[in-house]
Amino acid sequence: MSELTAPTGREPELRAEPRDDGTPPRALVIGATGYLGGRLVPRLLEAGYTVRVLARHAPRVAAFEWGSRVEVVEGDAGETEAVARAVADVDVLYYLVHSMAAGKDFENTDRIAAQTVADAAAAASVARIVYLGGLHPDDAPLSAHLRSRVEVGEILLASGVPTLVLQAGVVIGSGSASFEMVRHLTDVLPYMPAPKWVRNHIQPIAVRDVLHYLLGAARVDATVNRAVDIGGPDVLRYGQMMNGYAVEAGLHQRAIAALPVLTPRLASHWVNLVTPIPRATARPLVESLQNECVMKDHDVDALIPPPAGGLTPYRRAVALALGRVQDDTIETSWQDAEVSGVPSDPLPSDPEWAGRMVFVDARSVTTSASPEQVWAVIAGIGGANGWYSSRLLWSIRGLMDRVVGGVGLARGRRSRAVLTAGDALDFWRVEAIEPGHLLRLRAEMKVPGLAWLEMRVSPDGDGARYEQRAVFFPKGLAGRLYWLGVLPFHGLIFPGMAARITAAAVASAPQPEPVAS
């Protein structure tokens, strides 16, 4: 059974209930390109909903398999006009955004977005809001990120629109940040020095069960306006979660030592260096584990019955997630969330550079390989395939980025075979892709400026022309000094990269059969 063969709208209580005029109800998903939103949308469609999404970039939505089946309103959750357009004629609104890594002012950002959505939903007479918050104790200090999620839930509950806040703890599924943290810590470390929170009790929940509750929330009685806890059937210590993963992955049990000196800040640095999770994402995850996160009650059962086959045990959820990883069929990933502090706007067209300081490194190579063969190499770049130049130099650059809190190279790529707009690719993000012709990557590494890497291929006689361009818009003196500092690195990396990409394309060409004498 695959990871998400759980109820996806086929059960009667999860099917969309038609409007009074017999038409399908409309669901708005805010956060549709994120980890859970990207999985919820196709299940809403399957359940019979008409789906609209609010997203910053329509091309990112179009890259999903379901992208052509939804209506897209471009904008941000904090933009009043965009939200007003999005909530028009909506029956149920799913609010699945929170600023996991949105800088120091994230609490205010979350507050403004939640209030904007709450006000617009009330004005548009939306029938139901569904929000996924965080499982938390009532009698203990909360981390800033968890406190912000609680506040968002309170804002939505006070909107005047019936709201159901589902409060979940650690979500286990292929590509989830929580699962990836457990996976990489356990895979890499035979001995784990850990903060004292490894002894805290946690109630993890499988992603399939979160989706079950999200779908069921749309059908809850209109009088319900409250928060409820959701969780799986197992209550474990974090150390037990790691060793449960080890068993399912065929590894030896890990020795874990709880060290009181490891603060959340130090632990997030540790997670940043050992796993692909960048420090900005690791810290809220680590901070949320300082408290015991266990369901206080099971009131949710009276509102949304558990799945027909029961809730998924932790080790079963791990096994299903591992199957997705091994089969290269991860549906969505924590990587889908964009990194704060990097450009959100696309690379300006060349004429718009007039009057601006810009540095460019351009390379061009002609090859006997066909455009299709060159493109196959370009489309497979990054991750396990690397960057077709000095692995040592790329590794050093990735390590430098990790040390200063960036994503580094360990993030890899979600799929070995598929690359779409919006995908993370090591410390880049796919900004634009035109299959067979263009791949443009936007830097998400820590640099004093804005950077892009572009690869193009076009026919050239009987072969192809490969064009490669690195573009950097420096920010202040630091940006100019940075470019001068990396020029030697570029001189070693970029010429070899262009040459090896075209050489790999030539090597991939089928060889002629030997002619018998």
TrEMBL record:
Q: Where is this region: Disordered?
A: 1-24
MF term (GO), any:
protein-containing complex binding
Residue ranges constituting the NAD(P)-binding domain according to the UniProt record: 31-140
From start to end residue, where is composition biased (Basic and acidic residues)? 10-23
Which InterPro entries does the record cross-reference, listed alphabetically?
ComplexI_NDUFA9_subunit (IPR051207), DUF2867 (IPR021295), NAD(P)-bd_dom (IPR016040), NAD(P)-bd_dom_sf (IPR036291), START-like_dom_sf (IPR023393)
- Lineage, top-rank taxon, reads Bacteria
Task: Fetch the Gene3D superfamilies from UniProt.
Answer: 3.30.530.20, NAD(P)-binding Rossmann-like Domain
Q: What is this protein called?
A: SDR family oxidoreductase
User: Species name for this entry?
Assistant: Microbacterium hatanonis
